[in-house]
């Protein structure tokens, strides 16, 4: 499976499939979409109105990566379930942190 991000100058782009109005906020692992794109599955309790679910997603990713939410922005998919988050910072350490998060998710039953 490929990685759900693309490194770029000044950070990376993270591809996410978001489920709003969930019973909990969580990153759930990786999924391959029908078109072959690898995405991070995420769910948030927030409703998809007025950007609330998008803001909750940014907060959740920031918490998991231990990075300020101000370094994360929505680059694409404001009204779509599939989103692209732009994370500013050094791509190498951000990618390592994402790998660690995915490894922890895979290790849980």
Please tell me about this protein's structure.
By secondary structure, the protein is of the alpha+beta class. The protein has one domain: Conserved Hypothetical Protein Mth637, Chain: A. It contains two helices and six strands. It has helices at residues 52-65, 91-107; strands at residues 5-8, 11-19, 26-32, 38-43, 72-76, 82-88. Strands 1, 2, 3, 4, 5 and 6 form a six-stranded mixed β-sheet that branches. A hairpin with a 5-residue loop joins strand 5 and strand 6 (82-88). The two termini are 20 Å apart. The model has no long low-confidence stretch (mean pLDDT 89).
Q: What's this entry about, in short?
A:
With 109 residues, this protein is α+β, with helices and mostly antiparallel strands.
Please outline the helices and strands.
Layout: E1 5-8, E2 11-19, E3 26-32, E4 38-43, H1 52-65, E5 72-76, E6 82-88, H2 91-107
N-to-C span: 20 Å
Q: What's the domain count?
A: 1
CATH architecture identity? 2-Layer Sandwich
Radius of gyration: 13 Å
CATH class: Alpha Beta
CATH superfamily: YggU-like
Structural class: alpha+beta
């Amino acid at each position: 499976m490929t990685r759900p991000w693309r490194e770029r100058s000044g950070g990376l782009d993270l591809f996410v499939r978001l489920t709003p109005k969930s019973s909990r906020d969580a990153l759930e692992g990786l999924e391959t979409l029908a078109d072959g794109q690898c995405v991070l599955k995420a769910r948030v309790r927030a409703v998809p109105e007025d950007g609330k679910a998008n803001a909750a997603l940014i907060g959740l990713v920031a918490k998991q990566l231990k990075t300020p939410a101000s370094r994360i922005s929505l680059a694409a998919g404001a009204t779509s379930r599939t989103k692209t988050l732009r994370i500013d910072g050094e791509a190498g350490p951000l990618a390592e942190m994402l790998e660690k998060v995915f490894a922890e998710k895979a290790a849980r039953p």
